[in-house]
């Protein structure tokens, strides 16, 4: 896949030159595009994951890499066809859009040439086109299934400023109640330490004698000791990558509610890097309307490095993960890193913590198989693997949870 054969309609014969020229075309034509060397490099990597014989797969792969907002996505398709099909006939709608012949070329639509050694599994003419010459939403299902994984692989332009993240206020009261219920359900047992109490199984002689000094030596107020119940600590780790953009706001709202209802809560977000946002959530409490998070940098809206960031959590913040800690990881599990790193990180976190919960929003999608990606590596180390879509589901996260310590 090193080059496109030189043909009419392609400004350059080399694949890299085509991508560089396309990036320059996007910057010149639409000012909202900020294409840099990192995006060109990511574009090359994206094309390795699709078949160059399918124009729609190439378009989808480059769209996921080069678009970082809805405004860019709205104009990308037109710019893509204008650049790569310049001088050719634009793909037109067939007379019977839902009866295209599988495997046959569509009228007026030539695919990007591919290597002869790897014939396309899904020929370009196997899908339908709508009246605007763009692929039908149900066409190119292979590229659609690959879309979340491609989003997880690529980050924003190096140096690009991360957007502000707003914590949703809709249903916040219900989420606060759910967080309270979840915290109250945790039963960690009693501490080994003795603590003063008004009643208890152990008589405290020294404290009783000290109290007797105020009553003329009479031990009217005896002192007792007991083993207090341990209070749980929550470590909430949220995947803020591009592939989680449809679910991250809801999960962030729950993390915010959990922090408001329990002081023993630490919250982290990660994308290609990790950021501790506990203090930012504390400051957000004082904002009565539209609390926001700032300066998240590469911890939000970029690529996905689950294993590396969880290992960094264990190494840098391992003192927070104790026998009374419940670690909650919220991620779709679309990781392109080495499975060995993820396995090492989860094994260490499991050894330190009382429970390890993984929230995966893709579980609600029909046909999703967690064994097809890095979740297959994570499943043996999890105490609970589930999805939470509403406050009632969040409230049940720790219900009947068996703690290991």
From TrEMBL:
<dbReference type="InterPro" id="IPR011195">
    <property type="entry name" value="UCP010256"/>
</dbReference>
<feature type="region of interest" description="Disordered">
    <location>
        <begin position="90"/>
        <end position="141"/>
    </location>
</feature>
<dbReference type="InterPro" id="IPR008912">
    <property type="entry name" value="Uncharacterised_CoxE"/>
</dbReference>
<protein>
    <recommendedName>
        <fullName>VWA domain-containing protein</fullName>
    </recommendedName>
</protein>
<dbReference type="Pfam" id="PF05762">
    <property type="entry name" value="VWA_CoxE"/>
</dbReference>
<dbReference type="InterPro" id="IPR036465">
    <property type="entry name" value="vWFA_dom_sf"/>
</dbReference>
């Amino acid at each position: 896949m090193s080059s496109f054969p030189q043909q009419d309609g392609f400004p350059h014969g080399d694949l890299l030159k085509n991508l560089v020229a396309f990036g320059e075309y996007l910057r010149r034509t639409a000012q909202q595009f900020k294409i840099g060397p990192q995006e060109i490099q990511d574009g090359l990597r994206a094309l390795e994951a699709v078949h160059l014989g399918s124009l729609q797969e190439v378009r989808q792969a480059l769209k996921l890499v080069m678009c970082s907002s809805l405004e860019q996505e709205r104009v990308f398709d037109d710019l893509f066809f204008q650049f790569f099909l310049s001088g050719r006939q634009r793909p037109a709608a067939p007379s019977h859009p839902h009866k295209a012949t599988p495997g046959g070329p569509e009228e007026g639509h030539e695919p990007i040439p591919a290597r002869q050694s790897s014939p396309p599994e899904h020929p370009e003419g196997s899908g339908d086109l709508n009246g605007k010459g763009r692929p039908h939403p149900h066409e190119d299902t292979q590229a659609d299934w690959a879309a979340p994984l491609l989003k997880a692989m690529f980050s924003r332009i190096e140096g690009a400023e991360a957007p502000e993240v707003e914590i949703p206020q809709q249903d916040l009261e219900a989420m606060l109640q759910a967080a309270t219920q979840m915290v109250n359900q945790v039963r960690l047992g009693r501490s080994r330490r003795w603590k003063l109490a008004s009643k208890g199984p152990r008589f405290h002689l020294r404290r009783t004698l000290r109290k007797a000094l105020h009553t003329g030596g009479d031990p009217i107020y005896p002192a007792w000791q007991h083993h207090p119940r341990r209070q749980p600590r929550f470590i909430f780790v949220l995947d803020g990558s591009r592939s989680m953009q449809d679910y991250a706001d809801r999960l962030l709202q729950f993390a915010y509610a959990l922090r408001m209802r329990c002081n023993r809560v630490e919250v982290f977000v990660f994308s290609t890097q990790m950021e501790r946002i506990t203090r930012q959530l504390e400051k957000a409490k004082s904002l009565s309307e539209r609390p926001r998070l700032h300066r998240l940098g590469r911890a939000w809206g970029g690529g996905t490095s689950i294993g590396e960031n969880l290992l960094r959590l264990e190494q840098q913040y391992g003192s927070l993960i104790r026998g009374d800690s419940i670690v909650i990881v919220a991620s779709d599990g679309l990781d392109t890193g080495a499975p060995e790193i993820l396995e090492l990180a989860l094994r260490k976190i499991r050894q330190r913590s009382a429970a390890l919960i993984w929230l995966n929003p893709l579980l609600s999608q029909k046909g999703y198989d967690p064994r097809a990606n890095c979740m297959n590596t994570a499943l043996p180390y999890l105490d609970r693997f589930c999805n939470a879509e509403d406050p009632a589901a969040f409230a049940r996260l720790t219900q009947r949870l068996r703690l290991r310590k």
